[in-house]
Amino acid sequence: MKLIRICNTPRIDFYTADLTTKLELPMASTLLSAGFPSPAEDHIELKLDLNRALVKHPSATFYGRVKGSSMIEAGIAEGDIIVIDKSLEPKDGDIAVCFLDGEFTVKRISSGAEGLCLLPANSEFKPIRIAEESEFQIWGIVTYVIHKAR
C-alpha cells in the first residue's frame, strides 16, 4: 500500500492510498492468544490484503498520521496512522476527524442535552463544546488505527 501525502495540518497529516496494488500477506488461520500461550499449530494458510481489509469505500477513504496525545487512552498515539472513512454517517461515540474553526482534530463525538461535544481520551485535555457560531464539520469517521508496536 503506497501512501500519497495530500495535506499537512498542525494535528493531522492526510494521505490517500494507491489501492490498485495488491499485496496478500500470510495470515494465521487460528486465533492468536493474548493471554496464555496456545499450542503451536502450523495454520498459516489464509492471505490478507490490507487494502481490502481496511478500505470499504475506496473513493471516500483517507489515511491520517496523528500528531499529539489527546486520544492516547483510546489507543491512538502520536505517529499512529488512522483510516478515515468520509462516507460513514457519524454516530454518538464514534471517533472522528473533525474540522473546527480552521483546524482538524481527532476526538470522540458526544451529543447530549447540552449539544455536540468533542471528547478527548486524555485527562490532560478538556472537552470541546461546539458553539453555534463555530465553523464545524465532522470530516470523517476513524475506522482503524495502525499503531507501531516497536
Automatic annotation (TrEMBL):
The Swiss-Prot or TrEMBL record describes its family as follows: Belongs to the peptidase S24 family.
The Gene Ontology biological process annotation of the record reads: DNA repair; regulation of DNA-templated transcription; SOS response
Q: Which SUPFAM superfamilies match?
A: LexA/Signal peptidase (SSF51306)
Q: Which UniProt keywords apply?
A: Autocatalytic cleavage, DNA damage, DNA repair, Hydrolase, SOS response
Q: Which domain of life is it from?
A: Bacteria
Domain Peptidase S24/S26A/S26B/S26C positions:
31-142
Q: Which CDD domains match?
A: S24_LexA-like
Protein name per the record: Peptidase S24
Family annotation (Pfam families): Peptidase_S24
Q: Which GO terms describe its molecular function?
A: DNA binding; hydrolase activity
UniProt cross-references to PANTHER family, sorted A to Z: LEXA REPRESSOR, LEXA REPRESSOR-RELATED
